[in-house]
Automatic annotation (TrEMBL):
Keyword set, alphabetical order: Oxidoreductase
Cofactor: Fe cation
MF-aspect GO terms: alcohol dehydrogenase (NAD+) activity; metal ion binding
Protein name (database record): Iron-containing alcohol dehydrogenase
Pfam families according to UniProt: ADH_Fe_C, Fe-ADH
Keyword hit for Nuclease: no
Family to which the UniProt record says this protein belongs: Belongs to the iron-containing alcohol dehydrogenase family.
Domain Fe-containing alcohol dehydrogenase-like C-terminal: 186-382
Domain Alcohol dehydrogenase iron-type/glycerol dehydrogenase GldA: 10-175
Amino acid sequence: MTVSNFKSAHRLITGYQASSELWPQVQRLGMQRPLVITDRGVLQSGTLKLITDQLNAVDYAIYDGVTPEPEVAIVEACTDTFRTGEHDGLIAVGGGSAMDIAKCVAVYAQHDGPLHELFGEGQVRQRNIPLIAIPTTAGTGSEVTNISILSDAEQQMKKGIVSDHLLPDVAIVAPEMSQSCPRSVTAASGVDALVHAIEAYLSNFATPITDALATKAMELIIRALPKAFANPENIQAREDMATGSLMAGLAFGNAGVGAVHALAYPLGGRYHLAHGVSNALLLPHVMEWNKLACVERFRGIAVAFGEPIDNLTDDEAAERVIRRLHRLCADVEIPAGLRSFDIPESALPELAAEAIKVDRLLRNNPRKLVLADIEAIYRAAY
Ligand SMILES: NC(=O)c1ccc[n+]([C@@H]2O[C@H](COP(=O)([O-])OP(=O)(O)OC[C@H]3O[C@@H](n4cnc5c(N)ncnc54)[C@H](O)[C@@H]3O)[C@@H](O)[C@H]2O)c1
Ligand SMILES: [Fe+2]
C-alpha cells in the first residue's frame, strides 16, 4: 500500500437533530456577521429556518441566489455580497450547488486576482474565512470534499477548483435537513451518492479506509434510497441516506471517482442535466465496461448490496450488481437512455471528445478508456 493522506472537513457533526448544533460552532469559530449561502428552493421549503432560528444573536444575512449546477457568475455575485456586507464567516445550507458556491467564495473573497486563477488543482494559497457546510440533499458529499464544481456557460463545460483549503471547518449532516427534498431531487442526489461509493470502491486509488467507508455507504444507500423516495417523511431512511452520502463523500474525496463522473460532466455542461441524472444514465453501462478489469471487486459490491451470491461465480455476481442498478434507477423514476433527454445521437462524438479530456477522473478508473471506448459507452447509454 502506498502512502495516503486522508482528508475530511475538520469536524463532523451527524445524526438526527444535529442541525440544532450549529450555534455552538458559530460561536467557536467567532462568526459575528455570517453570510448564509442557500437557494430559493431550500428557503421556500422552510428548512432554512432550522438554521436561521439559531442565528438571532449575530448579524447574519442570507444570499439565496444559488441555482442548480451553478455558473461561475454566481461565485462573483455572491462574493460581492460577502465583501460589501463585510461578512466574517460562511454557512452553506443546501445541496451540492450551494455548498460548492460557498466553498468557492471562502477562497475567492480574499484572493486578490481573478477567479479563473483558482481553477484547476492546487491553485489556492490560503483560506482564513471560517466555513460551515450543512447539506440539504443526500447527496453530493461536498461537505467533506476538497472540490467545487462550476458550470461555464460560455465554454459549455464544467470546471473545478481542487484544493484542500476548500475543506470546511465543520460539516453538519442531519436527516431533518433533507426531509423537504422534492422526490426528483431525492432520486438524483441519492444515485449520485451511490455512484460516489461505487466509483471510490473501484478506484485505482482505493485504500482499506476508503473501502470501509464505500462499502458501508453502498449498504445503507441501496436499501434506504427507494424508501426515502417512496416516503419522504421516513426519517430512518433519510438518516441512512444522510450517513451513506457522507461516508460516500469521504470515500470518493480520498479515492476519487472515475469514468461515470468523467462521462457525466459533458452532459451537465452541454445539456444541463442534473448531476445525479447524468450519472444514473451512465452508471450501468460504465459498470458493464469496468467489469472485465476487476470482476472480483464487483463481488464486494454484491455483498454490500445484500445479494445472495454464495453459489455464484464472480461474473454472475457482477451481473446481479448491474441488474440491481438498472432496477434502482427505474424504481426512483430516472428515465433510462440519453434519448429521453433530447440529446441528438449526432452529438455523441463531441461528448466523447469532451469526456476524454477529464483525465483527472479517468486516471482513477479501473479500466483504461480511449476515445472510441467512450463513444461506445455513450452509444450503449443512448
Ligand atoms: N463538490 C463536490 O464534491 C460535488 C460532488 C458531487 C456533485 N457536486 C455538484 O453538486 C451539484 C448538485 O447538487 P445536488 O444534487 O445536491 O442538488 P442542488 O444543490 O443543485 O439542488 C437541486 C434542487 O433541489 C432543491 N433542494 C435541495 N435541498 C432541498 C430541500 N431540503 N428541500 C427542498 N428543496 C431542496 C434546490 O432548491 C434545487 O432546486 C452539481 O453542481 C454537482 O456538480 C459537487
Ligand atoms: Fe457526483
